[in-house]
Amino acid sequence: MTGFPKGAGALSSEKSELFALLLKKKHIDLPQAQTIPRRTEAGPCQLSFAQQRLWFLDQFEPGSHLYNIPIAVRIAGQLDAAALEQSLNEIVRRHEALGTTFVTVNESPVQKIATTLSVALPLVDLSELPEVEREVEARRLAVEEAQRPFDLASGPLFRASLLRLNDKDHALLVTMHHIVSDGWSLSVLMRELTALYEAFSENQPSPLAELPIQYADYAAWQREWLSGEVLAEHLSYWKQQLAGAPTVLELPTDRPHPAVQSFRGAHQSLAVSKKVGEELKALSQREGATLFMTMLAAFQILLSRYTNQEDIVVGSPIAGRNRAETEGLIGYFINMLALRTDLSGDPTFRELLGRVREVALGAYAHQDMPFEKLVEELQSGRDIGRHPVFQVMFAVQNTPQQAPELSKLALRPLKLEGDSGTAKFDLALFVVEAAEGLRAVVEYSTDLFEAATITRMLGHFEQLLAGIVANPDQRLSELPLLTAAERHQLLMEWNNTASDYPKDRSIHELFEARVEQTPDAVAVVFEDQQLTYAELNRRANQVARRLSARGVGPEVRVGICMERSVEMIIGLLGILKAGGAYVPLDAAYPRERLSFMMKDAAVPVLITQQHLLERLPTHDAEVVCLETSWREIADECTDNLQSGAGAESLAYVIYTSGSTGVPKGVAVRHRSVVRLAKQTNYVDFSANEVFLQFAPVSFDASTFELWGCLLNGARLVVFPAHIPSLEELGQILQQHQVTILWLTAGLFHQMVDEHLQSLRGVRQLLAGGDVLSVSHVEKVLAELGECQLINGYGPTENTTFTCCYRMTAGMKLKGSVPIGRPIANTQVYVLDSHMQPVPVGVTGELYIGGDGLARGYLNRLELTSERFIAHPFGTEAEARLYKTGDLARYLADGNLEFLGRRDQQVKVRGYRIELGEIEAVLMQHPAVDEAVVVASEEAGGDKRLVAYLVTQEEVAPSASELRRYLKEKLPDYMLPAAFMVLSEMPLTPNGKVDRRALPAPGEARPEMEAGYVAPRNAVEDVVAGIWGEVLRVERVGVDDNFFELGGHSLLATQVISRVREAMRVEVPLRTLFEAPTVAELSQRLVAIEARPGQTEKIAKVLQRIKGMSPEDRRETLQRKKG
């Protein structure tokens, strides 16, 4: 609530003179002052540019009090109410703006000026109330008055009322609409009010001279003057100044940006220490700058550190009264300047201040360009949820605040509790310069920010200011932001995860210890087979001895290409017992990829199965087929070996996608796996648990499933090799009473949507690999009360899990599901580009330390040194951090929130993919000139890959041809679901591909080799419809291949589930793989129907329902029920 006017945004005369002097030194000429003439035409006139925008905003949200300008004054003494009313009426007579309304003529707004306007001063008598109630009621009425909206068309846009608390105590409440006034106007109002009251209370005439012009004269002059060459010159400056500027300042918020601004707000303030304030002023003088410039530079540093942006645009109000005739007017003159500063190159503060000074002087020299006109000319895409050009405002309020004086009355502002409750910007910083020192006031949108966030931000601003005055020659990255307590919390307290675990023992040693404890407990179950811990140990020992005889020992890498089975578990354990490290090779991968992996890992021995040999590339490794070699292996000794492999030895190498076009092998030690599986805190491991081994061994979630189970004496249920339907997965979970389960985010979402009850027996459900949907998580928490849900996050380079967030029934989530805190013996740091910890709530890159770290990348020393770096906060000489490339931020409670990637790496179906690898392979196609691949987010948060191509030929290769080409080189999960051919790639101003400007893939049918053939019967029509819904393809032909349309195994489970539900037929998932076209699948459905003709009849009913209107469907239902 406004007390005495502060002259917000207005430069004092002293500062205006200093600005002019600085401009002169820089040889910047201000436009010559022109006399503003009186209007010669009577009647309505055009709005000024500033008024036009406010009028539009009022039309957009009528009835808002956002642009009310209130003032409340407490008056002590014997008040002459009649003289006060006379004074107010004289002010209204003098200033035509106060009698103006805004109406529409010929579809355009105009100012309609009242010839006469009488202002009443209603009296509200509170004197009969008890004294305490009087004060409370006075404040309530003042707030109510300040928030009462105006009607711009009917007016009046100026009103006043008088509260009587007793004979010698009154409160004057005056409210104006911003469209006829501004902060400067309040000073004019109070100055004139006191002068007129002094005269009228003594029956003297007005002492004030008539005004030279009225606001309408200024509006008409502005429209005429700001045209032609004058407009072109100003516009040229601002267009050049704002060319390529970011349209959005990416401030980290506590809540998502609303679609439409509500303007709800609050404010907080900070008193800058007297010493720091004086030193800031002295620094400004030494550098030939104003305090405004110095504080703006500091604020832009804060914004840059909060946003990780180096191109910062801030709005700043300026009084807009640089002509003498306007200084005494009440009216809306204030203008907004867009101050854009380049903070790149990590300059010193002194250097940055020089940049800010140049920006401010240039803007001041071109201040006559109305912001509203600039927005119109820039034609930037308008977002009704954000302020155009800038979303953050800055101002220094340095106009001396002197209480108006009257000879017989004492005036003081009526102080009101609380905020005005509004905020026009996401964030606004006002630096108030007063006799007692500097004060920083932040006004903020409560839609976006919590109060605690703003408190922290003000604390960081205070740290920054102290650092600036201590040494203005520090680089921006060196200036302090965090308090000592915050730094300790981020680096030490939240990373205090050390706990005891058997860190010096290998995986197989711990397994053998488990065998000693519970030899007869069931270790592995696969279909109708099961092995006890003792049996599994004996067989693994036999395999280990066979491998040892073939030269396998510590640091020797052994390939393993096997489907999920008991033999696969024996093989993995046997490799480790021999001292070797396993290298998973997925038989579904293209031969070319497998060949690279085998050569890169230099595997001398390959464990596989007979039926997979034909899928493997040519290689030099010695092959061991466990099922055919078992008779020989069975003769080996069953005792444990002493292989010499220990905690620091290599345990496995898992290959992940690489940006150069080939995969990279992540080399993981035994200790890293033991830290994941033993005596940890993110999952409750015990011998009573039942794990499902479901993930491919080439996916590092299998590390958790295998060793989390077998090192803790639990039972491992191995899922059959084929891709399951959701029903089959649910049956396995219930049949074997699985208690610990890992699911990728995509499969988790599907299970929750379609088979939630199948998860009822699971005690600990881990999901991750991508962002979890809040709605799906909340559904699990609400309906599966006994299940603990765990969001698991972690790259392969830190052995499966880095952070986990445990959730139980009753927990409330906000906008996203956090990834939680680091698990035991793991450290995480959120750092900026200069390796400094960022504040809570601020986005940075996630770095990981601790015992889970991999050795690095196999045969990639340069990449290893780039991603595994020296630990800047570590106490041990050899300590390292892994640079993840993931963006995250700390929440106030110490949990982490995942915010995406800073590079082109994405997660699709739980697999980590380098988009650059797909692009590199596409570029090898002879017809492709350019290729860009993006991960397009679908409804429900799932992602699909979309490839954009520029080809050499007029007739581009079909989607089928491109998919076949990629299938020879990349695994299925890296194949794009859609291909879009462009004439050229959209580019940013600096010549890079503008990924945001790429067209949406849409739902058009991709170009296929087979032409479109429409469904020929009801069954084909229903099947094609289901495919279209799942694949998001508008038109599906009967000869279209499900997988060539972008389908994959997860989507296949959705299709089969919907077909079963719609057609009332039990069809196994493999049917879609065997019959991947609409025609073939439809034939299969008819072939397996329970009764002849049933499928066709059901399909026809579905067709009929689909063609009905909602009203027809309801009528039919009511008729059937009746």
Topology:
Elements: H1 13-25, H2 49-60, E1 68-76, H3 81-94, E2 100-105, E3 108-113, E4 123-125, H4 131-146, E5 158-166, E6 169-177, H5 183-200, H6 215-225, H7 228-242, E7 265-271, H8 274-286, H9 291-307, E8 311-318, E9 335-342, H10 349-365, H11 371-378, E10 392-397, E11 410-413, E12 427-434, E13 437-445, H12 451-470, H13 484-491, H14 507-517, E14 522-526, E15 529-532, H15 533-549, E16 557-561, H16 566-577, E17 581-584, H17 591-601, E18 605-608, E19 622-625, H18 626-633, E20 650-656, E21 664-669, H19 670-677, E22 690-693, H20 701-710, E23 715-718, H21 726-735, E24 740-744, H22 745-754, E25 764-768, H23 774-783, E26 788-793, E27 803-807, E28 821-822, E29 826-831, E30 844-850, E31 856-857, H24 861-867, E32 868-870, E33 880-890, E34 896-901, E35 905-908, E36 911-914, H25 915-923, E37 928-937, E38 943-951, H26 959-967, E39 978-981, H27 1018-1031, H28 1049-1063, H29 1070-1074, H30 1078-1087, H31 1094-1107, H32 1110-1121
Parallel strand pairs: 4-5, 10-12, 14-23, 16-17, 16-18, 18-19, 22-23, 24-25, 25-26, 38-39
Antiparallel strand pairs: 1-6, 1-11, 2-3, 5-6, 7-13, 8-9, 12-13, 14-15, 20-21, 21-31, 26-27, 27-28, 29-30, 30-33, 32-33, 33-34, 35-36, 37-38
Describe the fold and architecture.
- There is one protein chain.
- The protein is an alpha/beta fold.
- Among the domains are: 237 residues, Chloramphenicol Acetyltransferase; 174 residues, Chloramphenicol acetyltransferase-like domain (Chloramphenicol Acetyltransferase, 2-Layer Sandwich); 99 residues, ANL, C-terminal domain (GMP Synthetase, Chain A, domain 3); 113 residues, ACP-like (Non-ribosomal Peptide Synthetase Peptidyl Carrier Protein, Chain A).
- The protein is 34% helix and 20% strand.
- Strands 4-5-6-1-11 form a 5-stranded mixed β-sheet, with helices on both faces. Strands 24-25-26-27-28 form a 5-stranded mixed β-sheet.
- A hairpin with a 2-residue loop joins strand 5 and strand 6.
- Helix 27 runs antiparallel to helix 28.
- The longest helix is centred in the middle third of the chain and has 20 residues.
